[in-house]
Amino acid sequence: MQSKQVLSNDEIILNYIRRNGSVSKAIIARNTGITPPTVTNICNTLADKGLIYEDRQERSALGRPSMLLKFNEQKEMLLIIHVRTHNVVCYVVQSGGVILHQMKQSIIGLTVEAILNTIYRCAEDIIEDMRWTIAAIGLILRGPVDSKKGISIYSPNGKWTNIPFKYILEERFQLPTYVENDVRCLSTGEYYYGSGKGIENLLVLKFSYGLGASLIYHGSLYRGYNDYAGEIGYSVIDIDEAKSNVFTRLEEVASETAIREYVLAEIKKGRLSKVATNQDILADAFRVEPIYEAAVEGDEICLEALNRVGKYLGITLANLYNMINPQRIILSSAMGNAVGTMDPILRTVLEKNLHRAQAVDLVYSGNGSYYTLLGMVDIVSSRRASEVWLSGGR
């Protein structure tokens, strides 16, 4: 799903089948706007290339039963590498999204060089494993990414800048490599396979140790002029003129990092909290899950932290809604049951700051890692379809 990309009928039909499971030719024609004879001819060609197959017949109340077509999910094996906040996760995945194998390596406290070596070593271990015949690599990164050139412009992981991952990995492993930002992968996965399915104008906000956004506009991923769209965490929300115009950015007050720092600061003041006895409270490895659990149980400090973040998220979503007016907003996080604790203040602030009183379709998603993976698989498979599967390339 690339911005302003013109797809051939072959690509449109293959992608439709790939994303929608078992479908009939009549459904394909109806939902793509391609004429039934053209659909039949293209489907025959796709079947001859081993890209789709006849799955089963569907009974019909009238006329002959229709044959349902399905994408060949085993077409290729892909290596998807997800560089997360605390670890690197490598997946061996079929083109249809089925996970065959995964491995995880911690990167907590590592230098930039050590993180990069972890990425390369994980890829090497899987590619050299005789069980897998990898056809392409997909690399998911935090921070701004030039997806066309495959360059990581900046990453919070180790604070690196302008690393040409596509060139490095292709030179090293002789495999086509695709690089994408994690929130764009997430929005792609949610749009085609999750809570955003069928929503043509979709805003996805990822709430984690940072804060990022991604917009699906009329069914296409919006990237912006220089591939920078969505870096909402860098938005300035306050200026302290008394301190030589020190800026406060949204990510500093509306992220899991902000939650953790608020709770730690209050504990250091001598306030009591259920998480004060957590052995990792001052360690880099400290997670926010104990804070979420304590908030659900009524811990005062943890509730304050969530409500504070909920207020800022409500303002943020109101500003975005007033600006771009999406059909649906998906807020993806790992809060679990704590979402219900934060939701009332978030919605109150959101609705209070809308330009006009209206109901906002806000959905919470807790499967961010899964939909991020599916999104990257979809992005890679779409590129493979246009560059290799339908062109006869390798």
What's the structural blueprint in terms of helices and strands?
Elements: H1 9-20, E1 23-24, H2 25-32, H3 36-48, E2 52-58, E3 66-71, E4 77-83, E5 87-94, E6 99-106, H4 112-127, E7 134-141, E8 145-146, E9 151-154, E10 161-163, H5 165-173, E11 177-181, H6 182-193, E12 202-207, E13 211-217, E14 220-222, E15 236-240, E16 246-249, H7 250-253, H8 256-268, H9 289-296, H10 300-324, E17 328-332, H11 338-352, E18 362-365, H12 368-389
Parallel strand pairs: 4-7, 7-11, 12-17, 17-18
Antiparallel strand pairs: 1-3, 2-3, 4-5, 5-6, 8-9, 9-10, 12-13, 13-14, 15-16
Helix pairs in contact: 1-3, 1-12, 2-3, 6-12, 8-10, 9-10, 10-11
How many strands, which pairing sense, and closed or not: the largest β-sheet? 5 strands, mixed
CATH A-level architecture of the largest domain: 2-Layer Sandwich
Question: Could you please say which CATH topology of the largest domain applies here?
Answer: Nucleotidyltransferase, domain 5
Please trace the helix and strand order, writing H or E for each element.
HEHHEEEEEHEEEEHEHEEEEEHHHHEHEH
Mean pLDDT: 91
N-to-C CA distance = 21 Å
Describe the model.
It is globular, with a radius of gyration of 23 Å. The mean pLDDT is 91. The protein has helices spanning 9-20, 25-32, 36-48, 112-127, 165-173, 182-193, 250-253, 256-268, 289-296, 300-324, 338-352, 368-389, and strands at 23-24, 52-58, 66-71, 77-83, 87-94, 99-106, 134-141, 145-146, 151-154, 161-163, 177-181, 202-207, 211-217, 220-222, 236-240, 246-249, 328-332, 362-365. The protein has 394 residues and is α+β, with helices and mostly antiparallel strands. The protein contains twelve helices and 18 strands. It folds into three domains: 9-71, Winged helix-like DNA-binding domain superfamily/Winged helix DNA-binding domain (Arc Repressor Mutant, subunit A); 77-188 and 370-389, Nucleotidyltransferase, domain 5, CATH 3.30.420.40; 195-366, 2-Layer Sandwich (Nucleotidyltransferase, domain 5), CATH 3.30.420. Belongs to the ROK (NagC/XylR) family.
